[in-house]
Write a structure and sequence with these properties.
The protein is mainly alpha-helical and about 80 residues long. It has 4 helices and 2 strands, in the order E-H-E-H-H-H.
Length: about 80
């Protein structure tokens, strides 16, 4: 339920999408500014919390296991 401040570098944008994440450039100033904004802007914080919860609902251990098994079957020809 916590909004996330992350940099655009790496794989976080791929996983987090636009939901629940405040993406910034990987600089000290950008990170500090985003953290301050989330600490002081309750509407933005609540918006990111709601979007993050919707995004997280797309993921589950059951879905991961099912999709992994399907992939293993496909590549093994079964």
């Amino acid at each position: 339920g916590s909004p996330v401040v992350a940099t655009r570098a790496g794989s976080l944008p791929e996983v987090g999408g636009e939901a629940g994440c405040a993406y910034v450039e990987p600089t000290e100033e950008s990170l500090a500014g985003a953290l301050e904004r989330l600490a002081t802007d309750e509407a933005e914080r609540r918006r990111l919390q709601a979007e993050g919860a919707r995004n997280a609902a797309k993921y589950s251990y059951e879905r991961t296991a099912r999709e992994t098994l399907a992939l293993y079957r496909r590549v093994s020809g079964r």
